[in-house]
Design a protein that fits this description.
The complex is a heterodimer. Chain A is an all-alpha fold. Helices cover about 75% and strands about 5% of the residues of chain A. Chain A contains 12 helices and 2 strands. The longest helix of chain A has about 30 residues. In chain B, strands 1, 2, 3, 4, 5, 6 and 7 form a 7-stranded mixed beta sheet that branches. A 4-stranded parallel beta sheet of chain B has the order 9-8-10-11, sandwiched between helices. A 3-stranded antiparallel beta sheet of chain B has the order 12-17-18. In chain B, helix 2 packs across helix 11 and helix 3 packs parallel to helix 4. By secondary structure, chain B is α/β, with parallel strands linked by helices. Chain B is elongated, with a radius of gyration of 23 Å. Classes of the chains: A mainly alpha, B alpha/beta. At the A-B interface, helix 2, helix 5 and helix 11 of A face strand 9, helix 7 and helix 8 of B.
Chain lengths: ~300, ~425
């Protein structure tokens, strides 16, 4: 461990590489986590299929790449297809469990996660896949710092998407309806808001956001039908650490998680990468408990 | 009434116990000997499970076409009865119980993967029915004293060991000591890859080499950039990676993106991860161990040379650009059965088991001779190098078809 720290002290360029890689992947974590915060905050549904939505989006981009279409087109395609898929899932499953107890919705989304993973496995096989953007890789300082252009582009696109979602929530009628429903669903109904439609839209929006994150993950990382669970865990860690409705918190936690995973993996070894994330979550929870700050705000 | 009920329950339990504890009579349907296999047609091992099934079927087809097997003066054809184990070890065990107890099968071909074979081994041992397996390489399968488990493939600790010998050979050729070679290792934290690691460590010890990185990757690994950044910082002479297809795909992608410039890189499962198709020139000069290659000079009376097998396989099954070694070794397992039945001159599982244990044969897949523990000791692992997109055998030198390219240069894009 100390040897590894000494390497980072002696050659800080490697720290820069680790931090940059962490930020690039962390941006996609933050995006998926924001979707979860939305569904959790508005509908009080803990969506255990969150990571599977991400992977499904990844397969859309990958599949387009296989058909000779640039996988970047997978981004809008994933947003549209996953939005429609989210609506279908809401109508067929989520609507029936939304007013039930926590355990029922957990079970339903857990079942959905299993079905989605197995479905993707049947459709695309169990191999690890990557969508190749064929964009250039820039390097500096004798190749000690390398930056793939696709990672920078994905980072920027994540940022743009996050801003778009925020603007939508603030400015559009549906965004306002979602916020009103999150504050008090009963009052929103009394005021004439069709909360069932709001829930359907929220769940679909989450699926679309996850699809977008997945499309980018397939271009900068790897996808596999059974990788959904690790993305679900990351989303839960980020939302729990940040608190619902706290968008700056979600972004900071997402980016921070990416960086901590990378730096932790370097210093302690790859085997501790996941353990560090969970350990960090525990620290945050304990700290929050001590502070007794029960933040439960509207998603904004 | 109560006594009668108790008697009925006890009688049923006894009957069930007898059914489960004793193997049924050998499954021979007319002139066909039935072999059983619980293998993965769905789930995470399905791709390789289907490769293995294709290998089994080609072996059976060939043996049958050549007249079948002669057992005590009578000729029999072979047939395999399959069940889908859904890539789940528990299911493998359940299905084997079913094949033995309900279907009466007494001769087995293995499942795909070490995990499912680990679940299968105690079952065949319990019922004393022999299993010739082709897809479970973990060496932990062969240190438990099993008597009915036989494997035609080389065990996992041999997968990357030859790359250590090759690195030592190159170092000495360049006027360096073998002990000066710095090795970086990243292995998945699963039984297969930890076996591979154990084999590598053993060989490194022989040459006095040092490991500068020894990372264990999580099972759901999808990012090894932290380890690769460490590799860039510490500049080892040899980088070893093992983590099934996901490790190979993740490694290949991130080695390309981070421009990891190590003179020698060896990883398992290059072919299964289709690294040449997915990453093109970026994987040039990677060293990839294989159980078998079509360029090797192995021969047998059924298929002819390894190249002939390759040709026949591609003609039989559509969509194969390369024949996976998983299929070749599955076929070899069928050949072991054919050979053992002929020598045993009996269908008694005990006698057939003894004939399998005494196997000493040459196949298109390589030699097959089992140790006391049941693993094949007659066939080495082969190291191939990706040279301009082709997999060429470079080690061991006895079987090499091409010289090794060294040092490897990191691609510039």
């Amino acid at each position: 461990m100390w040897d590894n720290i000494m390497v980072l002290v002696a050659a800080p360029v490697f720290s820069v590489q680790l931090v940059l890689d962490g930020l690039f992947i962390g941006a996609t974590f933050a995006l998926a986590a924001y979707g979860l915060a939305l569904v959790w905050g508005v509908m009080n549904v803990k969506n255990l299929a969150q990571g599977d939505f991400v992977i499904a989006g990844g397969y859309i981009a990958w599949w387009l790449g296989k058909q000779g279409i640039h996988p970047l087109w997978g981004l809008p395609a994933a947003i549209i297809i996953m939005f429609a898929f989210g609506w279908f899932i809401y109508v067929t499953i989520i609507r029936r469990v939304i007013d039930k107890d926590l355990f029922t919705s957990l079970l339903a989304t857990f079942g959905l996660a299993i079905v989605m993973a197995q479905g993707l496995n049947l459709m695309f096989g169990p191999e690890v896949q990557t969508a190749e953007s064929d964009f250039a890789i820039r390097s500096m300082w004798d190749n000690n710092l390398t930056i793939a252009e696709i990672k920078v582009l994905a980072f920027v696109l994540c940022g743009i998407l996050a801003v778009m979602v925020v603007l939508f929530m603030k400015r559009s009628r549906m965004g306002q309806a979602i916020r009103a429903t999150a504050q008090d669903a009963r009052a929103a109904r009394v005021m004439g808001i069709d909360t069932d439609k709001v829930y359907a839209f929220t769940y679909s929006l989450n699926a679309a956001i996850c699809g977008a994150a997945g499309a980018m993950i397939s271009m900068i990382w790897v996808i596999q039908p059974f990788y959904g669970i690790s993305h679900s865990i990351r989303s839960f860690v980020i939302v729990t650490a940040a608190g619902f409705g706290n968008l700056p918190g979600v972004i900071m936690a997402g980016l921070g998680l990416g960086v901590v995973e990378n730096l932790g993996g370097f210093v302690f070894g790859a085997e501790f990468q996941q353990a560090i994330v969970v350990g960090l979550l525990l620290v945050v929870l304990v700290w929050r408990q001590i502070q007794q700050r029960k933040l439960r705000q509207v998603v904004s | 009434m109560k006594a009668r009920l108790t008697t009925a329950v006890l009688a049923s339990a006894f009957a069930l116990g007898v059914t489960l504890a004793t193997p049924a009579s050998a499954k021979v349907e007319g002139d066909t000997i039935v072999l059983g296999s619980a293998i993965s047609f769905t789930g995470k091992y399905s791709t390789n499970g289907i490769h293995a099934k294709n290998g089994y079927e080609l072996g059976v087809k060939k043996v049958n076409e050549m007249g079948g097997v002669k057992v005590g003066g009578k000729t029999y054809k072979l047939r395999v009865e399959y069940y889908d184990d859904e890539s789940t070890p528990l299911r493998t065990a359940q299905l084997l119980e079913r094949l033995i107890s309900q279907d009466g099968v007494k001769y087995f071909l293995g499942p795909y993967s070490s995990a499912t074979t680990t679940a299968a081994a105690p079952i065949v041992e319990k019922y004393k029915v022999p299993m010739v397996e082709a897809e479970g390489a973990s060496r932990s399968l062969f240190n438990k004293g099993y008597k009915y488990l036989f494997a035609v493939l080389s065990t996992s600790e041999q997968y990357l060991a030859s790359s250590i010998a090759l690195a030592a050979e190159i170092a000495e050729k360049n006027g360096k000591k073998a002990s000066d070679v710095k090795v970086a290792m990243a292995f998945e934290n699963d039984p297969f890859s930890l076996d591979v690691r154990a084999g590598v460590l053993e060989d490194m010890k022989k040459f006095g080499m040092k490991a500068v990185i020894d990372d264990k990757m999580p099972r759901d690994l999808n990012d090894i950039s932290a380890t690769l950044t460490k590799v860039k910082a510490l500049k080892p002479d040899l980088l070893l990676l093992s983590g099934h297809s996901k490790g190979a795909a993740t490694g290949a992608r991130q080695i390309k993106e981070l421009r990891v410039d190590v003179p020698m890189i060896a990883m398992t499962h290059c072919e299964a991860a289709k690294v040449t198709t997915n990453f093109g020139d970026a994987v040039n000069d990677f060293l990839c161990p294989t159980q078998w290659a079509e360029t090797l000079s192995y021969k047998d009376k059924w298929f002819g040379s390894a190249a002939d097998y390759d040709k026949l396989f591609k003609a039989t099954y559509e969509g194969y650009k390369n024949v996976p070694y998983q299929s070749a070794q599955a076929t070899a397992a069928v050949l072991v059965w054919a050979d053992a039945f002929s020598r045993a001159s009996s269908l008694d599982p005990e006698k057939v088991r003894d004939a399998i244990a005494a196997t000493d044969m040459q196949t298109f897949y390589g030699g097959v001779k089992f140790s006391e523990a049941g693993n094949n000791i007659a066939k080495p692992m082969v190291l191939r190098q990706i040279q301009n997109g082709s997999y060429n055998v470079v080690a061991p030198s006895k079987w090499a078809s091409h010289p090794v390219n060294w040092p490897r240069k990191a691609p510039m894009n």
